[in-house]
């Protein structure tokens, strides 16, 4: 399993902690930056992570900013990306089982590093349920990216 990870300045410390913990647990990760706590813009860090996940080069992405919201907004603009902003393990499990999410967004100002590790492990260990109802819903989400006005899809 290949995982791309990135953060802005607010998520840098958590990213470093998470990287270390997940590598020790045997996960293969590539760090796409940022590489310091110097101020930067979260969309710039979301781009390379989402690009490699969207293109299938990496299985999953993890993005970290102050709240996780900015990263999830940026990530969900990419085709084939289903990013979820998660703050506890139950949502991490359900977003994988029901939504087949492939990018995990975390907020370093919302959760601590130990919880972040638990959330990431849950997210990465949980398979998609592959149930027809969930597949149908994901197909509808994907169709929205091709329609300039989602209301026209009714």
Write the layout of secondary structure elements.
Elements: E1 2-7, H1 12-24, E2 28-31, H2 42-54, E3 60-65, H3 69-75, E4 83-85, H4 89-99, E5 103-107, H5 113-125, H6 132-144
Parallel strand pairs: 1-2, 1-3, 3-5, 4-5
Query: What are the secondary-structure elements, in order, as H or E?
Result: EHEHEHEHEHH
Strand content: 15-25%
What is the percent of helical residues?
40-55%
Helices, by number, come to 6
Largest sheet: 5 strands, parallel
* Nearest-integer average pLDDT: 94
What is the CA-atom radius of gyration, in angstroms?
15 Å
Basic shape: globular
Number of domains: 1
CATH architecture classification: 3-Layer(aba) Sandwich
Distance between the termini: 37 Å
Number of strands: 5
CATH topology: Ribose 5-phosphate Isomerase B, Chain: A
Helix-strand makeup class: alpha/beta
Widest sheet: strand order? 2-1-3-5-4
Low-confidence stretches: none
Oligomer: single chain
User: According to CATH, what is the class?
Assistant: Alpha Beta
